Amino acid sequence: MLKIWIEQIKNKADHYGVDCWKYNFSSNMLELSVQKEYLEHEMEFRKAVISIGKVLQALHHKLTDKGYQHHVQTFPNLDNSALIAAVRILSKSGVKSNSSCPDHTLNDKKQLPVKLESFARANQLVLHKIDPSNLKDVVIPAPDSDFNWYALSANNDNPFIWLRVGYWQEYMNCLEDCLQTGLIVVKDTTICSNRLILSSSVSHRFVQLLLGIPKEVTAP
Asked: What is d(CA 141, CA 138) in angstroms, rounded to the nearest whole number?
């Protein structure tokens, strides 16, 4: 199943950034590694690790929904910086859900900010609501006064955090696919070049991405 699913993921090249990672499959274990050309520069490596985080979250959702117990070991060999994760199927519990939504308790669009904040906290990340005035120096697509803006940030900035950013991004993307709320996501170079500008608005944490949520979704 792992090999079938990873090939399905590779068919969504843009979404999962398949140009920056590769996989190796043997028996019941899948290894995910960064392509060598993405190892030399930090921003490229960061992009690759976040992409692998998205892949791992997608696989976790598929495995859980199909009733497979599994184990994910991240950074299994610290002497090999390219190897990011190893996924192993342990057994099949027989409990299936076959749901496309990663959170089966979500039944109202207005629960979205709370769910995203909770998932961030579970992954050592923080989702801050920020004042739009803090975005005046940040180029964002289609800025609109009908959006509330949030910053996903962390106390540290390293590959372990980047992997979790990937988990969170994939979780968010899946919820958005289910709810169709019209989120706006700003990430990568736009954030990195403005990190110092945004730092004070998020208690001097490292900003990973920005998220715009329509005000109608966040209204009480």
From this structure: 10
Q: Lay out the sheet containing 184-187: strands in order across.
A: 126-130, 147-154, 206-214, 184-187
Domains and their CATH numbers in the chain: 2-92 (no CATH), 109-218 (3.30.565)
Q: 206 is written with which tokens?
A: 């490292």
Query: In the chain, which residues have pLDDT < 50?
Result: none
Alpha carbon distance 198, 165 (integer Å): 18
Measured in degrees and rounded to the nearest 5, phi and psi for residue 170 equal -70, -40
CB 20 within 8 A of CB 45: no
pLDDT in tens, 63-89: 998 888 899 999 999 899 999 999 998
Strand-pair category, 83-92 with 126-130: unpaired
* Mean pLDDT over the full length of the chain: 88
Tokens of 25: 């499959």
Computed over its alpha carbons, how large is the radius of gyration of the chain?
18
Contact 116, 85 (CB under 8 A): no
Task: Look at the pTM and tell me if it is higher than 0.85.
Answer: yes
- Residues comprising the chain, all counted: 220
User: What is the C-alpha to C-alpha distance for residues 143 and 140, in angstroms, rounded to an integer?
Assistant: 6
CB 102, CB 175: distance < 8 Å = yes
- Residue 184: name the closest of 216, 218, 149 by CA: 149
Rounded-to-integer distance, Cα 182 and Cα 217, Å:
10
| Number of Cβ atoms within 10 Å of the Cβ of 219 | 8
